[in-house]
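To whoever picks this up:

The parser on our side crashed when reading a file containing two proteins. I've narrowed it down to the boundary between the first structure block and the second sequence. Both blocks are reproduced below exactly, byte for byte. First block:
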Amino acid sequence: MATRRVAISRSLWKTTVLKVDEVYQLKNSSSIVWGEGEKSICDDFYKQHQLNRSASKGSLLFLVVACEKLKEKLNKDIPILIQNYSQVIYFCYENSLSKIIEKEVDFKKSIEYLCAFDNPEPDKIECVASVLLGAWLAIDKTKASVMDAISKAQEYIPSYIRSFQAELPLDPEVQVILDGIDNFTYNLTRGFLHWEFQGRGIYKTSSKLLD
């Protein structure tokens, strides 16, 4: 199971503020069932919930499937034992990352948010998604957070993935120099200085991470 931890104010079994583990189990089969007994998905979810509860944490457990009809069926058939903290969600399965980005709007928006560019082009979105997947495979997932994966991806392509540091202002002297260049435009966004220059048949554009 993949785990993401979040802190939310929500009552799961007590009217207290709990740290909640969001846990995702991915299945790419059209014949998935909740099952009964040891090693069934139902048993997995119940034991994960008990483990979280023993650590004074709440549980939000998601079964991710690649068939929308199967998702609807499994959501209707969630065993009573795990109903309060379980849900089935759909995520498409395709043979290429570009097709997944095209079909999964929320996934695409998430990758766009991580890009260093406003309104990134499709090739940049796919590049960032590919590097993030590679970074996820490369890190120790038993200890890593989402930000660990993003930081690893930034090491691979620092010019494509946004910075999460507070926006750094330009030095006033540098700003005066840039403002004085004809046909030169720039902006600061997502931790990067993006600039364009056009003049006498020359066109150049680039980005630089501010640090």
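<<boundary where parser fails>>
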Amino acid sequence: MKSPLFPLMCALSLLTALPGRADTKIVFLSGDEEYRSEESLPMLAKIVEREFGFDTEVGFSVDEDGYVDPLEISSLTKTEELKDADLLVMYLRFRSPSPELFQNIIDYLDAGKPVVAFRTSTHAFRFPNDAGLDGWGFQNDPEKKHSFGGGEKIRELLGQSWITHHGHFDDGKKPLTEITLREGKESHPILTGVKPFQAYSWLYHVQGGGDTISGEPNLLLDGRSLKSNKEERGETDRYPLQNPVAWTKTHKGKDGTEGRVFTTTLGHPYDFRDENMRRLAVQGILWALGKEDQIPEAGVNVETVGEYQPNNSGNGEEKFKHGLKPEDLTASSE
């Protein structure tokens, strides 16, 4: 005699067997001391879990007691989960993980697997000068807080490394960049249901004035600075007021395997309060996985799971939320 739970068990088995659901694992690595990725990445992970049933793991920088602390630049949890991951989503800034932790990332990239990267991931790492990792970014002046050199390997991977930006200006009080879809790219799957919007992210310079994005990028979105220190200084020939803010490309693993890459230089915590930014991010994840056929005609439902009320951006002890462990940020409130 069949159990009365048999129909439910069959339904659950069918659900988990559907392509692109529980058989897909995404590792989100959060580690930046400025833009509250410890709040935005768990929010995105919850959306993709709800909408697509993906298995997600979110890594953080934590202190010795296990509390989330983005100032702990050598800490980066969950890198071991990359061994069987289908996608790496990174929002990192000036991290200096141990050789063992960093090797987990290198092994993943060497396999030619896909990557999604936000904003400061163009300067994700900053190792000591003698670490032998100059291509990933190094500390070229220990006396200067924001001193940075290298980054050629990050540029090869994501399309660009850190160059400069157009200035903070009243951080979080008003948008600083006008975002528009590139002409002719409106039908790209990542842009399904994405409309022009204003971002709180100040514009990063990635192209123009002699600089180029590497790897034959497909440019999707442009940003135009609404207030620029480069304009004030008369430097717009070198640093144009309009620059790409989202693109796709590929990278190659050791054996020549090509992995998809989606990069956006947006990512201020307040940007993610706009559904267009959340949709861009989630659909970038689907595209990188090769699952763009799962994007609905009107775009993915990106209503947040529970509230998303991030702190504003900024550096320092007082800027991020204290007393939180990873499970406090990743647990669903619904």
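After patching the parser it read the second block fine. Residues 37-52 form the longest helix (16 residues). The radius of gyration is 20 Å.
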